[in-house]
């Protein structure tokens, strides 16, 4: 008689893989504000720091908001396959350093990317279990107010960003979840729940 314990046919649930979450939404909707609010209370939430050819805004620091690189350096990152995804947005290039993200996922920790629509699409194509979250403004007028009120871009750059915003808003249905940024506190809480 066999003493082996039968495992029967009970399905073994698949090991839950750590999730990569993408947060996208039009420029000025409040992505950075929401993420900063969430991380103030939960500094353990890891956010990927992107590389960009954009110049730093007042108060932005190297390695905190972005790694600021020139065009030649960005070309090299692309050529060496060091970016998980990258895109040109309103006249500058932005990309996610690949290795840091893979290291986090490998260590079993959730990963948050705050990137544009083109980047979100690339992530979806390469990582099918990624979770895509769209941050929407309460209204178009409020988006314009926020982007203009931030006071960090010239009128010409604001126009380019608003043109991109129309395309991004039209792509909302490609995302798994939409959060409407009426209250920073509410959205930060909802985003945290999605990450866990
Ligand atoms: P994004 O990172 O999406 O480009 P920001 O986080 O820089 O946007 O926010 C753009 C502007 O909108 C900032 O001045 C910010 O203070 C403001 N803002 C963000 N969320 C809200 C909100 N829920 N209500 C009112 N103003 C907001
Ligand atoms: P900003 O210049 O306002 O910091 O960012 C402009 C846009 O670029 C935002 O929509 C932001 O989410 C996006 N962005 C920031 N980092 C990346 C990145 O690494 N990849 C992509 N595709 N977009 C990014």
From TrEMBL:
Positions of the UniProt region annotated as Disordered: 1-24
Keyword ATP-binding on entry: yes
Reactions the enzyme catalyzes: GMP + ATP = GDP + ADP
Entry-linked InterPro entries: GK/Ca_channel_bsu, Guanylate_kin-like_dom, Guanylate_kinase, Guanylate_kinase_CS, P-loop_NTPase
Residue ranges constituting the Guanylate kinase-like domain according to the UniProt record: 18-196
EC numbers on record: 2.7.4.8
Subcellular location: Cytoplasm
GO cellular component, one term: cytosol
Coiled-coil region(s): none
Pfam families according to UniProt: Guanylate_kin
Keywords carried by this UniProt record: ATP-binding, Cytoplasm, Kinase, Nucleotide-binding, Transferase
A Gene Ontology molecular function term of the record: GMP kinase activity
Binding sites annotated in the UniProt record for ATP: 25-32
Highest taxon in the source lineage: Bacteria
Keyword ATP-binding part of the UniProt annotation: yes
Function: Essential for recycling GMP and indirectly, cGMP.
Family: Belongs to the guanylate kinase family.
Protein name: Guanylate kinase
Organism: Streptomyces mobaraensis (Streptoverticillium mobaraense)
